[in-house]
Amino acid sequence: MLAKRIIPCLDCDLNVPHGRVVKGVEFKQIRYAGEPVDLATRYYEEGADEIVFLDITASHERRETMTDVIKATTENVFVPICVGGGIRKPEDYVNMLKAGADKCSTNTAAIHNPRLINEATKVVGSQACVIGIDAKRRYIENPKEGDDKFIVETDKGYCWFDCSIYGGREFTGKDAIAWAIECEKRGAGEILLTSMDRDGTKDGYDNYLNKAITDAVNIPVIASGGGGNPEHIYDAFAVGNADAALAASIFHYNEYPVNAVKQYLKEKGITVRL
After folding, report:
1. Which of 11, 162, 197, 243 is catalytic?
2. What is the pLDDT along the chain (274 residues), one digit of tens a residue?
3. Angle of CA points 107, 108, 110, to nearest 5°
4. Does domain 5-267 have CATH number 3.40.1390.10?
5. Is this model's pTM higher than 0.90 or not?
6. Does the annotation mark 134 as catalytic?
7. Could you give the C-alpha distances from 228 to 108, 200, 265, in angstroms and in order?
8. Which residue in 55, 134, 162, 243 is the catalytic one?
């Protein structure tokens, strides 16, 4: 059995010289969490399996800033690094990998131009092409209302999951499950799946969403949004069937070290790397 992965996430605001890590709730209420290189180094020393950097203020002008952050990080951090935010064309993947990243995650650009997935995988390979899906529940009264959607029965009723873009600022009406299936067919190597309803709440992952996606695709799925304690992470694996769990708040604010989470998971029978 493959080991489950624990992945700290660094949401980076690059509007300051060396960047800073911030964290919000449901993509809002942003607060300061630390410096990116310092936090990444700490998580590596604690046993993180991978680290994700998300440029939440991405634009062409700040690409160089993120490159500098990745170069500085990989001088002392020797686990896979994934970079997301502002990845719009195959050249962006190449530039980030040259800076030291191992994978790139894209959301908005892939939804606008799905062929980007095909093109990127030809250049850098499927293993380096991660698709971010930021999904929100859309409730319906009757499953028949959503004939053109994948309907999921949840604890609060029937819903489908709506893909958002631009950091949660705009919704597309695109069904997240159907989109995940298309991404796999186009060659994506992994899905970074964030529940917008749970993001930053620390109320637990949306395992209805996680399981719906993991049942639909054969590529690895990273559960994101809502991790508040080790039990939540356990549930993402045991209930949501995720391959990896991404978290931010519980790590940034010293609530649980990465190695403590892994020890808990091991005691619960989850295969992890210690």
Report:
1. 11
2. 789 999 999 988 876 656 777 765 544 556 556 788 999 999 999 999 999 998 877 655 556 668 888 999 999 999 999 999 889 999 999 999 999 999 999 999 999 999 999 999 999 999 999 999 999 999 999 888 767 899 999 999 999 999 999 888 999 999 999 999 999 999 999 999 999 999 989 999 999 999 999 999 999 999 999 999 999 999 999 999 999 999 998 998 888 999 999 999 999 999 999 9
3. 70
4. no
5. yes
6. yes
7. 27, 8, 14
8. 134
